[in-house]
From TrEMBL:
Functional note: SbcCD cleaves DNA hairpin structures. These structures can inhibit DNA replication and are intermediates in certain DNA recombination reactions. The complex acts as a 3'->5' double strand exonuclease that can open hairpins. It also has a 5' single-strand endonuclease activity.
Keywords of the record: DNA recombination, DNA replication, Endonuclease, Exonuclease, Hydrolase, Nuclease
Biological-process GO terms, alphabetical: DNA recombination; DNA replication
Domain of life: Bacteria
Name of the protein: Nuclease SbcCD subunit D
Subunit structure: Heterodimer of SbcC and SbcD.
GO molecular function: 3'-5' exonuclease activity; endonuclease activity
Family: Belongs to the SbcD family.
Length: 387
């Protein structure tokens, strides 16, 4: 069976101030062409179809168009909700839409109920694990501690139990939206940290033939059987080095996996330039970036006059301007930035406690801080879903 694995469309999202709807529409065109040209038997979309719980009307219209086009191809499609989606909204009409071959899996209670697709070697069971917000689904899975690993492990236990009851040799594919250990994040993914831990070990997914992951925006291989497709378009300058693509996966009769990448069309390359303003304007080596979307980091010790206006004369698609002046090592601004670099909210809060009273928090106080951050994140998720 040949499977096309994609994820993280983020329909309705802009790139800085650039409306990406035309680029997202071009991706849907490309998706339809790829399904037809590569003889795809099933399409899997591993979450974050939309960029927010209540997407703009134009994004909904594009999604509607994508559903009709995929259904028109006669190729079964499976989609799960991601942490950016409203699972309830995305899943509206799932039963009816399923009759057209578009299978939406947004309810955590259905993790152990697969979509069965046949090929010449038997059936392949596709299990959809929508994004599982630990605080919201721990009761459903009967876990005591609200953590990503605990709820994903419980969901996978249901998958393995169902698979064990099926005919020997039944092959399996799991769609999941999570941060798996070994994955490389970018700046454009929403933080899903709970209890100070966002990543789950890849061993959680043991026992299935292929795991189609979503959430991280870079296409990457965790193991030969566990892969991220990444987003089809860039959504932050941290993705400047990404090659945007989808996975074309061939699932053999024995469950073996062979995968290759299918490149996605990107409207412009990304460039991250750094230097003084005069250097950026004069360097002939930078001519190749004049049609790219540019993030410029200026290192001038003193902020120059009208830097954006001057930059856009040479780089008309400059979207981001960052100031990082070169300073002496003993400059207070340098030491403060170094103290914050690479530190998460929990660590910054603990440092603040130590600064205020002269001693850092003890284990009980760390737990209180951790619970407070988790409560805020859970509340943000609930409010996002309720919108």
């Amino acid at each position: 069976m040949r499977i096309l694995h994609t994820s993280d469309w983020h329909l309705g999202r802009a790139f800085h101030r650039v409306n990406m709807l035309d680029a997202q529409s071009a991706f849907i065109d490309h998706l339809e062409t790829a399904v037809r040209d590569h003889g795809v038997d099933a399409v899997v979309v591993s979450g974050d179809v939309y960029d927010r719980a209540v997407p703009p009307l134009a994004a909904v219209e594009l999604f509607d168009d994508a559903l009709h086009r995929l259904a028109g191809l006669g190729v079964p499609t499976l989609m799960i909700s991601g942490n950016h989606d409203s699972a309830r909204r995305l899943g509206v009409g799932a039963g009816l839409i399923g009759r057209a071959g578009i299978h939406l899996r947004t309810d955590p209670a259905g993790c152990g109920t697969p979509v069965l697709l046949p090929d010449t070697h038997g059936e392949v069971a596709f299990y959809g694990l929508p994004y599982l917000e630990p605080a919201l689904v721990k009761a459903e899975f009967g876990v005591d501690k609200a953590g990503h690993e605990a709820v994903l492990a419980a969901a996978m236990d249901r998958v393995r139990a169902d698979l064990a009851a099926r005919a020997p040799g039944t092959r399996s594919v799991v769609l999941a939206h999570a941060f798996v250990t070994g994955g490389e994040p970018s700046d454009s993914e929403r933080d899903i940290t709970v209890g100070g831990v966002a990543a789950v070990p890849s061993g959680v997914f043991d026992g299935v033939d292929y795991v189609a992951l979503g959430h991280l925006h870079g296409c990457q291989t965790i193991t030969d059987r566990i892969r991220y497709s990444g987003s089809p378009l860039p959504y932050s300058f941290s993705e400047a080095g990404h090659r945007k693509s989808m996975w074309l996966v061939d699932l053999g009769a024995d469950g073996s996996v062979a995968a290759e990448r299918v490149d996605c069309p990107v409207p412009r390359p990304l460039a991250r330039l750094r230097g003084t303003l005069e250097d950026l304007l004069a360097d002939p080596e930078l001519a190749r970036y004049e049609e790219a979307w540019v993030e410029a980091t200026l290192t001038d010790p003193v902020r120059p006059a009208e830097p954006m206006a001057r930059l856009t004369e040479r780089f008309p698609h400059t979207l981001s301007l960052v100031f990082d002046p070169e300073r002496a090592p003993d400059d207070p601004a340098v030491s403060y930035a170094r103290r914050l670099a690479g530190r998460d909210d929990q660590q910054i809060a603990e440092d603040f406690v130590a600064h205020v009273r002269g001693a850092g928090p003890d284990d009980r106080e760390r737990a209180v801080l951790r619970d407070a951050f988790d409560a805020v994140r859970a509340d943000e998720t609930v409010r996002e879903v309720a919108r």
